[in-house]
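assembly run, all chains below
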Amino acid sequence: NAGVTQTPKFRVLKTGQSMTLLCAQDMNHEYMYWYRQDPGMGLRLIHYSVGEGTTAKGEVPDGYNVSRLKKQNFLLGLESAAPSQTSVYFCATNGLAGGQWGEQFFGPGTRLTVL
Amino acid sequence: DAKTTQPTSMDCAEGRAANLPCNHSTISGNEYVYWYRQIHSQGPQYIIHGLKNNETNEMASLIITEDRKSSTLILPHATLRDTAVYYCIVRERSNDYKLSFGAGTTVTVRA
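ok done. output:
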């Protein structure tokens, strides 16, 4: 099992460009999350989903959109990238089986630079 | 969710126990204490969580004080691979299971 994977691993954008980050999981988890982490700081929640077809705003949602059309995929979109969105983006999932409701599983991250 | 306070950094000798403190004085009765760690450039990794009782798993032990206002994560025999940022998170069990990360404690294990 691959667990949680993120595509791409690295990306450089120019201001105003758009892109989509893909998070895929093979654990059949209902809950999925997108975080960003700026240098020297903890993770901040951008958007999350509690199931296929649902999305909700997190702590820092502005400038991002998300979609969860399939249970296994959670997409994060930047419509018009800004330098302030330079960050490392992490995807995570949360399962509910067997008492694992407390444990989030994280992907390896996507390093995004906006020039 | 209750706020947590952790030291910014700490050092530990390889092979010794590492004791990581966390203060959560405003914790409420239905909030759990979670610990995650993040090794350089990787995604965070779940370590352990607890409500009232002390907990132990293959990675660590969690000691929660009787008044639940503070806790300590214990890495029994620290190795160089335990060098990481450790996050103490207090969260109510809820329908969305969100986590709120602070700055954490940077733990450096030295040979």
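The first strand of chain B starts at residue 9 and ends at 13.

Chain B has a mean pLDDT of 92.

not gonna interpret more than that til we talk
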